[in-house]
Specification:
Strand order of the largest sheet: 3-2-1-7-6-4-5
CATH class: Alpha Beta
CATH architecture: 3-Layer(aba) Sandwich
Number of strands: 7
Structural class: alpha/beta
CATH topology: Peroxisomal Thiolase, Chain A, domain 1
Largest sheet: 7 strands, mixed
Order of helices and strands: EEEHHEHHEHEEH
Radius of gyration: 17 Å
CATH superfamily: Thiolase/Chalcone synthase
Length: 203
């Protein structure tokens, strides 16, 4: 597998791997600003996303930018998604349950229900970036990127997608790698993916 581009975000900064950049930000609200050059066009309802969905969208946008890959409305990309984290949707389910208990059925925020599935951040990513490849979520308690990369490689060689995005989202941030199987690559790509969370300050 070849890493075409990678992006990451934590609770204080974000950056790209090939471009070797690191920029600080004050809050996730600032990410929405047109003054910050992350997204090619605004993300609809970004303010309503839960934090893992925001982290996933930002990291994917940075990975695509790092790979110099253009995306836009109506420009479908044959790219698949493989997402993973260590806690599933437990925090989102806890938030939804607490809100329901506190506010009841009538006043409870139905929007919180959307994120009670661990694959919901991937769905938000797929919608915004107009991806038409397969979408998969894998529980990865062991944090083993080797299995994730092998799965991405199998999906590409099987013709399910031209490229794959490997996305990890959890507190306090996330990272994404755009992977391609066209070129012969070595184990160094796996080693690189393992270093990204350390570079991003996610471990």
């Amino acid at each position: 597998m070849t890493i075409c581009g990678a992006g990451w975000i934590n609770d204080k900064s974000y950056g790209m791997w090939h471009a070797d950049t690191r920029l600080e930000y004050a809050s996730l609200k600032e990410i929405r600003s047109t003054e910050i050059d992350i997204f090619s066009y605004p993300v609809k309802h970004f303010g309503r996303f839960d934090r893992p969905s925001k982290f996933a969208c930002v990291s994917v946008a940075l990975a695509l930018k790092d790979a110099a890959l253009h995306y836009g409305p109506g420009n479908k990309l044959n790219i698949g998604l493989l997402g993973t984290n260590q806690v599933g949707a437990v925090p989102a389910n806890a938030d939804y349950f607490k809100d329901f208990v506190d506010c009841g059925r009538t006043l409870g925020r139905g929007n919180l229900f959307i994120y009670t599935l661990p694959s919901s951040p991937l769905a938000e990513v797929s919608i915004h970036f107009d991806l038409c490849g397969p979408l998969l979520y894998a529980a990865n308690v062991a944090d083993d990127m080797r299995d994730m990369m092998q799965t991405c490689s199998l999906l590409i060689t099987d013709g399910q997608a031209e490229r794959m995005l490997l996305v990890r989202y959890t507190e306090p941030g996330g990272f994404a790698c755009l992977l391609d199987d066209e070129l012969n690559s070595s184990i160094s790509d796996l080693d690189t993916i393992k270093t990204i969370p350390h570079i991003a300050g996610l471990l």
